[in-house]
Design a protein that fits this description.
Layout (H helix, E strand, L loop, with lengths): L3 H11 L6 E17 L2 E19 L2 E7 L4 H15 L11 E2 L17 H18 L3 E19 L3 E20 L2 E7 L2 E2 L5 H4 L3 H16 L2 E2 L3 E7 L6 H8 L4 H4 L21 E4 L20 E6 L2 E2 L6 H7 L7 E2 L8 E2 L3 E4 L6 H6 L4 E12 L5 E13 L2 E7 L2 E5 H6 L1 E4 L4 E9 L2 E9 L2 E9 L2
Parallel strand pairs: 4-6, 9-19, 10-17, 16-23
Antiparallel strand pairs: 1-2, 1-5, 2-3, 5-6, 6-7, 6-8, 10-24, 11-12, 11-16, 12-13, 14-15, 17-18, 18-19, 18-20, 20-24, 21-24, 22-23
Helix pairs in contact: 1-2, 3-5
């Protein structure tokens, strides 16, 4: 691990040419993965990566250098390269660090690296068997188990020296249903900031297999979705991916600081329906997108982004906070030491409302019920999006009528926010990996069931 003495010398070297702030992010990650395919263990891998990144600021200029040599000489060399890129002065700098221990809000009972291979295999085999038992039409199942433990130390020229540990475990299952030369896919991928106690508390591997398989079989027997503008109900959980992609990224300072967001300059303005409150919360115990401290060493926070339709906050990291003249919000994140941090989401969701789920559907007339969402694309500057519905149903006269496949939801984030007229009472979260300029990171998306008065539905 990084010592205070080494960190102090490296930070001093980073500031010698006139930088006004320097930071070290040290990381040591142990990871494992196990894949079962066609009923047999296909791969079982373990790995380890370690290194450090050094960042230097001078005003609004920033330089980032990383290395896998975290010795004193390796860090000083990296710091000198950053210093040479940021300025040309030559001065002596003295850095003194004060240790701090973050409050750990994510207790871990069973570290992944302590779990024997036989126990790991039991998890994927149970999920596989449960998926295949759903229907004879299930022709292929792939189950993947991922876990990693990361120890970090963050030090900066303001005196901060703070360690943290992050532990993640996830089971991802894909099932394929086939009939008459046609196939459909279902998937379910739960995870948490937990060790292997995940499978004795939050996640039942057999339920994971059944959920993915039932989705595949349902869609195999579905008819094509008709296209048009219609009312849509988007179910709880991973349905929140639309808010995450079409609105959440546009509330990150990464975009806002440069005016590359449809919500730039709109703090205090009504940007959503009055029944919509949206939150980005890193403090939720053991959740997939939670943290103790962000990747700049700031304590995590619960941040209200939108309250009763009013834009209240952006997610702000240190450098973009300088650009915007705003305080940091504990939102700086990065994939690993090879990436400089920037403002990112954590557990981002639409908060529970007051509407009954049965009434949300029974009062909608005709439309589409999007029970499960898949992937899509979004333009963060305009908020325009296109998302696949991985499990959908037509609604006729307020009753769920029949399953349909091939549906897509098309629209613009700012418009959809204003067209939400129902928000259910029960919040669920879904796990994903979010990519941006600082790499791929674990995030939760979520919402209760919501209803959009009208949206363009792609189909045929």
């Amino acid at each position: 691990m990084l010592s205070k003495t080494i960190a102090e010398q490296a930070l001093a070297a980073a500031l010698r040419t006139g930088g006004d702030f320097a930071e070290i992010f040290y990381e040591d990650t142990r990871s494992g993965s196990l894949t079962l395919n066609a009923g047999a263990i296909e791969t079982a891998l373990t790995g380890r990566s370690a290194g450090a990144g050094i960042r230097v600021y001078k005003g609004l200029s920033s330089v980032y250098v990383f290395t896998n040599d975290a010795s004193l000489s390796g860090l000083v060399r990296a710091a000198q390269k950053a210093a040479d890129a940021i300025g040309s002065a030559d001065r002596a700098v003295d850095v003194r660090l004060t240790g701090a221990i973050p409050r750990n809000i994510h207790a871990i009972a069973q570290l992944p690296m302590d779990v024997p291979g036989a126990r790991r295999a039991q998890v994927v085999k149970a999920a596989d068997a449960a998926a295949r038992a759903v229907s004879a039409e299930i022709t292929q199942v792939t189950a993947r188990l991922y876990d990693w433990e990361t120890d970090v130390v963050i030090a900066n020229s303001e005196g901060l020296f703070i360690p943290d540990r992050r532990v993640y475990t996830r089971l991802a299952l894909t099932a394929v249903a086939s009939r008459g030369g046609e196939s459909q896919t279902g998937s379910y991928n739960p995870g948490a900031m937990m060790g292997y106690e995940l499978f004795g508390s939050r996640v039942d591997p057999e339920d994971v297999g059944r959920r993915a398989a039932r989705q595949a079989v349902t869609m195999l027997h579905a008819e094509p979705c008709p296209a048009g503008v219609m009312c849509a109900v988007i179910d709880k959980g991973f349905g929140g991916v639309i808010f995450h992609e079409a609105c959440g990224h546009s509330l990150e300072a990464t975009a806002v600081a440069f005016g590359n967001s449809e919500f730039a300059g709109k703090l205090g303005q009504q940007i959503a329906s009055p029944i919509v409150t949206a939150i980005d919360d890193g403090t939720m115990e053991n959740e997939w997108g939670s943290i103790n401290i962000d990747d700049e060493g700031n304590p995590t926070t619960r941040l209200v982004l939108i309250e009763n339709g009013i834009l209240k906050n952006y997610m702000v990291d240190r450098l973009n906070g300088r650009r915007m003249g705003m305080a940091v919000t504990g939102s700086a994140r990065r994939q690993d030491y090879t990436c400089a941090p920037t403002s990112r989401m954590r557990n981002t969701f639409i908060a529970p409302g007051n509407d009954d789920e049965a009434e949300i559907i029974s009062s909608m007339g005709d439309g589409l019920y999007a029970k499960a969402m898949g992937g899509g694309s979004v333009n963060p500057i305009t908020g325009e999006f296109n998302f696949a519905v991985s499990e959908g149903y037509l609604v006729k006269g307020g009753r769920i009528d029949r399953p349909v496949r091939g549906a897509t939801l098309i629209g613009k984030g700012a418009d959809i926010l204003k067209k939400i007229d129902r928000v259910g009472k029960t919040l669920e979260l879904g796990q994903g990996m979010c990519g941006s300029v600082s790499g791929s990171i674990p995030v939760n998306v979520g919402q209760p069931m919501i209803r959009v008065t009208d949206i363009t539905v792609g189909g045929r």
